[in-house]
Amino acid sequence: MPRRPTVAGVPADLAVILRDIGALVLMQAALMTFTVLLALAFEEFYVALAFLIAAGITAGAGGTARKLFANAPNPVMKHGMVIAAGGWFATAIFGAIPFFLAAHLTPASVMNSYVPAGANYEPIRIGGATTFSSLAYYGNPLHAVFESMSGWTGSGLTMAVHEPSLPRAIQWWRSLIQWVGGVGVIVLTTAILARPGSGSYALYRAETREERIHPSIVHTVQTVWRIFLLYTILAVVLLFGAIWWSEPQQGLFETFWQSLNHAMTALSTGGFSVTDNSIQSYDSPLVEGVLLPIMALGAIAFPIHYLVLHDHDFDELFSDLQTRWLFFLFVAGSLVLSVQNIIALPMASEAFTQTGWLGTQNLGVSAVAGDATRDSVFQFISALTCTGFQSSDIGNWSAGGKLIISGAMVLGGAAGSTVGGIKIIRGYMISKGIQWEFSRVFLPASAVVNTRVNGRKLDRNQMYEEFSEAAIVSMLWIILLITGSVVLVNVAPGFGYADALFEVASAQGNVGLSTGIVGPAMSPLGEGMLVLNMWVGRLEIIPILVFIRSALFGLNP
Length: 557
Known about the structure:
This protein is mainly alpha-helical. The protein is about 65% helix and about 5% strand. The strands form four sheets. A two-stranded antiparallel ribbon has the order 1-2. It starts with 5 loop residues before the first strand and ends with a helix.
């Protein structure tokens, strides 16, 4: 029996995987090093030390793997799947180190200096001291891993009860990992390494991406990042104007800081915030109105953005199947949710009064219905784009409203964008496949049946292949969703099944909306399960299954 090839004494297959995961980890070390400088600029010295140590650990692990297995061959698809799953998991683990170290290195008295003046937060006991900063929660390693996984996968669920009480460098790190993770850590690494050939394509496809902008994968991912950076700058400018108009008392720097962080997490459809109660804290139709198109941009496939920006082909926004359905679902879903929430409005008199600087006022049915419609539109688009910004207390919504939002989070936006969920194209393919199978019943066996999907003509075999892929991924997705929600409802006392389903759909769809289950006090079993849901949801299940199978039985057939 011939000996299998090895690299540095390790089987070649494993060497390929470790080398490329090392590259992903090394990339993260560079991001940590930059954050050290940011922490120093804000005079957050304990946090800077935490990031410096984390960067050293991460660079040591990644650099060692890269150096030891530098001569490993290029990855093929079987490697790509394992690298994608293992790389994302390793990225989340190493990304948790700064959270964990910052919580342990920073004294409680220093943590309290990060709490905004006048804030009335619940005290947190750490050792023999008391702090009011949510940074303390990251001292629990599971909380730190949860936050990191949520950030890198663009999920947006958080263990930080009060984000304004976090150090600036930690706020930045949360936004940065969502911004990078929204496009994809493998996409970023491919752009930096600029490795030509099939190896880059194997990794690109393994991160659940198919469409190219250019024939070269390297040029494709570099173009993706240029588009993403351009949109981010535009989003910062628009949000700065909206927040400054809504909250002029904050000052220029605080307005810029909130604009920068929210632009990064909105465009990446991540949803982390630097304010209490997410976007609800502004209570501003202007801020919400500016965020709607930014979130929508993140849910449109990058090749469509390229055609619009480079070729000025605005017709693509309406001729592309996924984009067309995305706009349709925005309108239809917002309308249905608005009707549902208006019908479910409590008829008690206190629901129609508001106490403010003019005293207690009777709002009237139309005003309350208008607020319900505004919240419904924002929350549905936030859910369908998998962004996860909240403008309303969804925990107080009816079960019907929660289920509609859950459906939007399960579906998600366009494939080839920054969103999670099953994706619009899969939902469409399942619908088209059912129609196709039904129509064949009335045709003779010899009939040649073709169908057109988004400008492509598919024959019988192609249709079967695409329908099967969509059906299998969707079925596995739903099975995991139902299983997770059953587990969560049994470890979340005080919450119903609609809440548990909502929370798991939010985690697995990489959205970030919450009914209140997620938090530092939740069950460790439920928290660990949601970490798994976020990881699986970001990679659409198949790479995770390949990873598990390879860990158990190896990469050979």
